[in-house]
What we know:
Elements: E1 2-7, H1 11-22, E2 27-30, E3 44-45, H2 47-55, H3 59-62, E4 67-69, E5 71-76, E6 82-86, E7 99-101, H4 104-114, E8 120-121, E9 126-132, E10 135-140, E11 145-153, H5 161-164, E12 169-183, E13 197-201, E14 206-211, E15 216-221, H6 228-231, H7 234-244, E16 255-266, E17 270-271, E18 274-276, E19 282-283, H8 291-313, H9 316-342, H10 348-353, H11 357-367
Parallel strand pairs: 1-2, 1-11, 2-8, 5-13, 11-18
Antiparallel strand pairs: 3-7, 4-7, 5-6, 9-10, 10-11, 12-15, 12-16, 13-14, 14-15, 16-19, 17-18
Helix pairs in contact: 1-4, 1-8, 8-9
Amino acid sequence: MTDILIAGAGPVGLALALALQRRGIAVQVLEKREGLSTASRASTFHPPTLEALDELGVFAALRPGGVQVDRILWRRVDSGAVATLDLGILAEESRFPFRWHREQHYLTPALLAALPANSVRFDAGVAALTQDDGGVTVTCEDGSSHRARYLIGCDGSSGAVRGLAGIAAETNDYAHRVLRLLTPLDLRAHVPALDGLGYLYDAEGSCSLLRMPEVWRVILRMPPDMTDLDALSDVYARAQLGRFLPQVAEMPITGRDVYGVRKAMAVTYRAGRVLLAGDAAHLTNTRGGMNMNAGVHDAMTLAATLRRVLDGHGDALLDAWAAARLRTVREALLPRTDARVAADPAGEVARMAALAPDQARAWAREASMLDIAKAGAP
């Protein structure tokens, strides 16, 4: 019997496995896919997440291939009004006072490489589980059986563990969907004061600009009644670029896709010897790039808690961890992302420009998740 089984070899599951392994805890990761996912998903890393990756010993090697974002821009495209915020104001609170942009599929191989050989079993999706006073027994789709003292579900919002553990979730689809365009054009040359993250507004809507290592992402919210096919058309894309970026409306577009946005929250993060972390426990709107970061924070705080539990301090610590992480999602994570979606586009630039220095620091601290990253740590 191993100490901990983890379902899911995404960034949260692998970060948790490495954090546990660094603490001398035996871990086995079960992954339903035949290899690591290469899907284009999360790409924003906030300061406390960078601190976690540095603690795990993987950030130094990854950092040169990413994009460091030191400043955020808000701009009205109709009036020219501008607000900026320098994330360097967080230098006294973090060794990494910036955002870092890179696709998460570069992170997972680095985490896997740092783990001992055979830590991850692929093609081994969880099919069934049973619990008793001594541990959890998991049966996988490949027919293998595994037993551990605890099982952690890091297998995503559609993973099996949450349902098999009998944990319900509160879910809701946002009314809007998002069109994402990719362009190799360096938008810094065309949008004054743009660093690596910008929000462009007119009186009725907004457009987000994210610099990635090789391309820029242009994120546009679609009308609720628009079909995916219409949104993916060049006619619609060029019209929106003409609206928010008229100076480069004919920019090259090397990729485009549409995705829906959901929010979800498990009603508890613990059912006996089964716990949840990452997307299995929570989903948020993509605005602000917080969900994957929150999952890594789940992993780091849970690893520290499990070390104390395995050392004999009592598994009531797991109840405290689960309650604290759930409270963080309910009272901070979801409200913050919802507020960003609901922000009045006509007034957002003026609101940010009017922030006093202490208010700007408080905003940056919340946007960077520094105030909630360690919630639940023992």
